[in-house]
Structures are given as C-alpha cells and as structure tokens.
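Let's practice the habit of predicting before peeking. Look at the sequence and jot down your guess about where helices and strands might fall. Then scroll down.
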Amino acid sequence: MSLFFFSLVHVCLAFLVPAIYLYSINVGEAIFFEFVSLIIILFCLAFIFLLLLKKFIGNYKKAAIFLSTSYLGVYFFTNIYRYIYVLDGNFNFLSYFSSKYYFFIYLFLFISLLVFILSIKEINNNLIKFLSLVYLYLIFFYSVSSVFSFFDIRTNVSSYISENNRFRVQHEKSFEILNDCLALSDRRDIYYIILDAHASSNVLKKYYGYDDSWFINNLKKRGFYLPQKSFSNYCFTVLSIPSSLNLQYHFKKKTTINLNFGLAYPMLKDNNVAFFLKKIGYKDINISYTWGPSSYMNNIYKKKFFIGEFTQIFIYQLFSRRVLNWIYNYIKYNQHLDQFDGLNKILNIDGPKFVYSHFLCPHMPFVFKKDGRLQYSYVDNDSAYIEQLHFMDKQILEFIDSILEKPGLRPIIVLQADHGSHENFFSSRVQVKFTEDDIKELRYSMFNAYCLPDFDKSKLWDSISPVNNFRLIFNHYFGTNFEILEDKIDYYGS
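Done guessing? Here is the structure:
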C-alpha cells in the first residue's frame, strides 16, 4: 500500500465518524441520498486537503494526523461548547468567555496542534493504524445502530399505514359520493399556513411584553375567527403537524424522536387531508422549504437556496453557526423569501386547490429584523424572536390580502402555529427562569386563526385545537360525518 493511500484511508475514516454518528441518531429525519452525497463530498475534501497539507508540511503521515485530529477536535469542541451554552443556568463567565472568543479559541488550538505535529520527527505507522482501527470500530458501531433504527422505523411505518387505512376506509366513500354531486365551481380553495413557534397573544404579552393587537385586529377585519384559549396537541413540530394533517391523535404511545421523524415523512407526504381532497378534484400544492418532512413533500417550485437539513445540521455541529453564521442566515433568509414568492405564484393556479405552507418562522434561527432586513449575526433572545415574528405577521397579512383580492368564492384559510414559543426548554437557563406551569403555557399556548366563509361562528369554540381543524371544515363544507374529538394535550413523546 502506498504511503499516500495509507494516509488517505486514515483521513477518510476520521471524516466519516461524525457524519455517520449524526446519521445514526437521525435515521428517521435524514434522507439517505443526502447522507451519501455528503460522504462523497467529505471524501473529496479529504483527498484535496491531504495533497495541500503535504505540500505545506512535507509529509503525508503528519498531514494525515493533523487533518484527522483537528477535524475531530473541532467537532468535539463545538459540541462541548453547545452543551456549556445550553446547560449553563446563569450564563456565567465560562459561557461568556467561550462565546466572545470562539474564533480565537479555534485558531489557538489549530496553531498549537500544527506546531506540535511539526515538532515530531517521525509519525509511527502503528499510531496511524491504531487510530484508524478506532475510527473503523466507531463507524461499525454507528452503522449497526443505524440499521436497527431503520428497521424499527419500517415496523413503525407499517403499523401506522395499517391503522390509517382502516380510518380512510371509514370515510373515503362519502368523498367519492360528494365528487359526483358537488360542482367544481362550488369547491373553495383551502389554505393551511403554519407559522412555526408563533405564540398566542396572551403569551406574547405576559412573557415578552409584546402587544400584537395590530395583527389580531387586522385579521378580524378580514373576517377571521381567533380562539382565545387555543393550544397545540403536541409540543414538537414532528408530532403536531402530522397529527393535524391526518385528523387524529397519534396511534402509538411510546416511541423515540428518531421514530417520530421516520413516521413524519410518510404521514405528511401521503396525509389524510390531501388524500380526501384529491378524491373530490382538489390539487394538492405544497410550498414549504425550511423543515425536513414538510420540504420533502410535493413542492411544485424549485427552491433557489435549498440545502438539505441533514447537511445544515452537520455543518452546524462541525463549525457552529457562530463561525459561519452569516452564510447560514443568508440561506435561511432567502429560503423564507423564496417561499413567499412561491405562494404568490400559486395564486394564479385555477382551483380547487389545497395549499399547505410551513414556515420555520418565527422559530429560530432569527434571520429577519423588524423591517425585513437580514440579521447577519447569531442572536438567540426574546427581542430577536419578537422582531422576526413582527415581520412575518406583516408579510402574512400582505399575502392574505392577495388571496382575498382574487375573484370567485372566498377561500378557507387556516393560519396556525404548530406549538408555542421558541424557547429551548431543555436549557437550564429556561428551567431557572420559568416555573413548570410557565413552560407548559409557553410551549402549548399557540396562535390560531380561521377564515371560514358562511360559517356560523357560534358553532366554534375558544379552545379548539389543530386535531379538529379539518374535521370541522370537512363536516361543514362537504357534509361529512367526522366525530369532533376532545381537545387535549397529548403528552406522547413529550
């Protein structure tokens, strides 16, 4: 074996470890093709960096050791920093110091490692072999874990499909009959728009000191009904949206976040709302660019700034957004603007159509200032959340006006959060700041608004929750017979 190939294999194995570890804990969320593409890119980078460093250092083995140790060192340092930040209840000197001098710590460690390796006369082949075997063992361990997770997900998906088919059989006949007797011109367009982590008015005022009455009053002027005590059925996006788009609570009560994501993809791609509406001639349109399961549904417009979520998380875990934040924010900023552009394009598509659009906003990352300018720097505080929320609310109002200006039947519009506030509830800083009841209110109390033309509002109620959205809509507008479920918080997976 040539010295170059020996060194290249060592570097490739080191580059593979963090990627396959990340995949093993996100099998349900990660797209396998995206994972393979990332591996190919990493191997190409290993090849290029090894050749470049050899020219600088003058020795393949030293270049290989520097690349592997610095790469893994950066990865572990970044994640140690993230845990310090999350677990540090009082945001003390250590967190402040590491945050302020993050880049310089990186630079110091790089230079120190380089000087140390250059000072060594010769790298022993056995050291490289030993480290390569360690990397190989980790790769094997994470690969086996991925395989087990994959089969768990397959079993979970099969179980869901079996249960859901029984649900569909109970109700699809009424839609097939309806298709024969309801004229296309009598079928209203339906818009379902998710504003991720948009808190309720009460929460915004109580915990953030922000009065959003300008937004609420404008919605009411446009004919919206806004329940005052609405709450999410689940506190995580991966549970909430699949539940509301499938008109039911989740079947399985004990599972993991990995399995939840694995189930979210088929639950959204073949959701019951779209399934039933397509039975009566609706076009199923998805404009969602920023959250994995939503963005991999049937988007009809190409995304200008699309980078897969797994790749984004990998880069974030490797370098931290604080190092490359302006690039990360620029991508997210343009994805959101591109999404509004896509929504405006579909207004010209003849109906009837069901339009689903999930904005990962006002949820962090906070990329919009109040006036819509790009927020380049990394921020994670209440004022940044409110600024982004304010801008999104203005944009949503403009889009609603564009919808309502179109001639024809007034459309059905549901504007809704998937859960409450943006706060990171795993952070000990939050645990110190809020009581348990506060956290529950922040996480579950959510923004909710309905534009339901020719609907008797006395039949609506203040605590309506997402699981009943389309049961209510289908029963009223299409004469179906869905049972209205109890509005409750389901602590499944929470």
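How did you do? The beta strands are 190-195, 283-286, 353-359, 412-416, 448-451.
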